Amino acid sequence: xxxxxIVDLETYAPERFLTAAELSAASGIPQEIVTxxxxxxxxxxxxxxxxxxxxxxAAARPLLERTGVEEVDAVVYFGSHWKDYAVWxxxxxxxxxxxxxxxxxxxxxxxxxAPVALKVVSxxxxxxxxxxxxxxxGASKESHxxxxxxxxxxxxxxxxxxxxxxxMRRGYDRNEVLGSAVRTDGSFAGQVRIxxxxxxxxxxxxxxxxxxxFLDVADPEDMKxxxxxxxxxxxxxxxxxxxxxxxxxxxxxxxxxxxxxKRSIHRALLAELGVDEDRSIYLDHNGHMSAVDPLFSLTxxxxxxxxxxxxxxxxxxxxxxxxxxxxxxxxxxxx
Length: 335
What we know:
Distance between the termini: 19 Å
Number of helices: 9
Helix content: 25-40%
Strand content: 15-25%
Strand order of the largest sheet: 1-7-6-4-5
Radius of gyration: 19 Å
CATH superfamily of the largest domain: Thiolase/Chalcone synthase
Number of strands: 13
Largest sheet: 5 strands, mixed
CATH architecture of the largest domain: 3-Layer(aba) Sandwich
Shape: globular
Order of helices and strands: EEHHEHEHEHEEEEHEHEHHEE
Number of domains: 2
């Protein structure tokens, strides 16, 4: 099978840092709960005039300065649905701003997006020998979609903003993207959404007055009741399937990079996977950046020197809808 590897990665975090104390004051939730249970020392928040396309460009520019824009044949955006404009694609805007001569597309799967995007892009590169390299970009500005006065949205109070860019290349023999697995339970499709602004409830004075343009949960108790018994089971299922497709088992995993979640769920997931906490990254200074988290963490792990040649890295995520996904990367050269 044709090798597809990650040539380079880069992250971007907005300058403003919202502390746990500020999050506590905004939400009315005690600071110790924000810190201990939500797992946040704070997170980065984009300016009002700083859009997801801007953050993608900010992450991609230094990466392309190191690797060369002439090597890129396509741009794939995998970040937040909430972009600069409604019914609009960020990928062409990013491609144009970076001077890339190729094509662009979007592969969005909310918080499950990173492992899914790795699968989509690696499949593209293996299937089409005219493609050499693809620039993968994603960003989130979900912190601006949170109504702290809405207790139904409490599990989303951890949302922060940021971006990541990754250059993937066919025939590259380092940081190889191996197997992936995805599963969806569509019975949760109606639970998490922005009620106003779509075709069901077009934007109007009434939707604005009713605060329908923020993220909301239709029935939090029902979602929790049905989701809690299956979440870890589905995480484990996609992890083991992705590893099996890659020729590995759980015991081979050197590093697990999940989306940001409450500390208790993060620890329970690692225990389910049989991985110690020191073999993972917890984004307590970034919060949950929708699809961005796993690749953001992969960049942090690389920059901190925590990855060695041949390490098996599991990127794992779940997103409303409800989808669980995992992808495996063998870091560096094989041992």
